[in-house]
Amino acid sequence: MKYGIDTFGPSLWDGEAPELAVAGPNVGTNLWLQVPFSGTVGAACYAAHEEGIPAIAFSGASTGNTAFNTSPVPKRSLVYAELATTLVKKIVDSGKPYLPQDVYLNVNFGKVEGKCTDASQFQWVLTRINTGLLSKDDTEWCGEDRLPTETEIALKSGCYASISVGDAADKTTADAARQKVVLGKLKDMLAHLKHFSNLDFLRHLGITIKGRSTIALNYTLTMAPIDRCLASMARLSLLQTPRPAVPTIPKFLAPAAAQQVRQASVVRIRKTTKKKKKALPKDFKRHNLAKREFPQYSLCEAMRVLRAVEVGQPPASVKYEIHINLKTARNGPVIKNSVRLPHPVQSDWRIAVICPEGSEIAQQATAAGAVAVGQETLFEAIKKEQINFDRLICHEASEAALNKAGLGKILGPKGLMPSKRMRTIVPDVVKSMRDSAGAADYRERQGVIRMAIGQLGYSPDQLKNNIKVLLNKVKAECAEISEEVHKEVHEVILSTTHGPGISLNGKLKDAEEQITPEALSSIM
């Protein structure tokens, strides 16, 4: 999932991050106690919680590992694919935001067998992940304030697909407010189902209770669900009836029913007031630095402290790094671009140029220092993964040939695929090479832009010039984006490879400081 979000997805969509993440369908269901240990659910929670991208985890009860190129395609694969497509389309058509913040959907399909061999035969049911014994009420649906559990629907005979609204932070059931948002998006496709009763639950597990009349058994069907009340089981236990013919229910399947019934008449469950989980704010939290009197330092003072921390480290392995904290929305657009620093951190870029073979453009690129030049010959080398360059520029005359060559799967994950958006498909390759030689890429993640800003031997003036150019570029991009959403620079922090982060006050040197910029202008 991380590779898809950070690398593969942007290579397909011109650097844009995906808007919706899908994990699965997984072979076998992921229900209740299985959820915290599921890789499928874990991938969806990573997307929703860490990357802020709405996510859905799909799992199917029909098992069997099958190669992707198996022919004919198994029926279960076709049905699950159609069901997953239906739900994804429904979510997308409902509009943004597709899901509430920090929410994922845990979806479990029933077995594809018997009467359930077509996607149109399946009914969608809104459920919860864990039992609600001590939980607050769910969102109201079907005239009740407690949703059925995934396990109940999995045990119910029929063609069902359960949809649970999960909290991506802890993989449990989300609160009623966030359930209500999802219910509003899916309401017209959901079926109305009641809870299983206690006896229904036992019957699905293959357990029979002897000595009960048909009337008495039918009467128990009207009792409360198994995660609501123990009284019905207690009343059954007080009668002189034989024990069940098979072993008792495993605790992980029916914990309420598996408790020793002799305790049911004396144990009183105290009502606990569970604190309502706070919803994540729409914006990333940023403290008021002036109000908190947060310590900030001049550039020279910060460099003095950081250089002292790096004493004993090989100078060539240490770089100054900048962290720009932004005031921005969690689900807003992100900043991603490159900047040409006046004092490049890395100057030994190896650049290759895609252009017509033997053309004047190829000769100019070679004279400008390109390590590889050409079209078909360069394509063949890339297909053999003989990539001896750090950056790849394409002349616009070769754009059609580049698209036809189909190199996206090789170059995309490496961040080398040329595109007009990233200004690597250009009419003037020599100018682009000059600009690219001193360019550095940066990207906003979780409201912070991080990048190397200088070598340890840079003087304060060199470092100041690099920081100034980067900040001006970021502020200009914030101004463009601010037409849609609010985004601005909040704080600038300087650090080194092994050093702490030091907040800068925007000054080169404070008046009372005795250290001079010249003393910080050499490698230690």
TrEMBL record:
<dbReference type="InterPro" id="IPR023674">
    <property type="entry name" value="Ribosomal_uL1-like"/>
</dbReference>
<dbReference type="InterPro" id="IPR028364">
    <property type="entry name" value="Ribosomal_uL1/biogenesis"/>
</dbReference>
<dbReference type="GO" id="GO:0003735">
    <property type="term" value="F:structural constituent of ribosome"/>
</dbReference>
<keyword id="KW-0689">Ribosomal protein</keyword>
<dbReference type="InterPro" id="IPR016095">
    <property type="entry name" value="Ribosomal_uL1_3-a/b-sand"/>
</dbReference>
<dbReference type="InterPro" id="IPR002828">
    <property type="entry name" value="SurE-like_Pase/nucleotidase"/>
</dbReference>
<comment type="similarity">
    <text>Belongs to the universal ribosomal protein uL1 family.</text>
</comment>
<dbReference type="Pfam" id="PF01975">
    <property type="entry name" value="SurE"/>
</dbReference>
<dbReference type="Pfam" id="PF00687">
    <property type="entry name" value="Ribosomal_L1"/>
</dbReference>
<dbReference type="GO" id="GO:0005762">
    <property type="term" value="C:mitochondrial large ribosomal subunit"/>
</dbReference>
<dbReference type="GO" id="GO:0016787">
    <property type="term" value="F:hydrolase activity"/>
</dbReference>
<dbReference type="InterPro" id="IPR036523">
    <property type="entry name" value="SurE-like_sf"/>
</dbReference>
<keyword id="KW-0687">Ribonucleoprotein</keyword>
<feature type="domain" description="Survival protein SurE-like phosphatase/nucleotidase">
    <location>
        <begin position="15"/>
        <end position="115"/>
    </location>
</feature>
<protein>
    <recommendedName>
        <fullName>Survival protein SurE-like phosphatase/nucleotidase domain-containing protein</fullName>
    </recommendedName>
</protein>
